[in-house]
Design brief:
mainly alpha, 1 helix, elongated
């Protein structure tokens, strides 16, 4: 994923929200790992 960020217009990722609701935190972790900032 990280090597394709600059070459694609958009990237969509699906997080399956489990019973504990970890999807939001997982998305934030991925964004951080990819060096991306939160949308404004």
């Amino acid at each position: 994923m990280k090597d394709r960020i600059g070459s694609v217009g958009a990237m969509y990722v699906y997080f399956n929200n489990d019973i504990s609701g970890h999807a939001v935190n997982n998305a934030r972790t991925l964004r951080h790992m990819l060096g991306l900032h939160a949308p404004v």
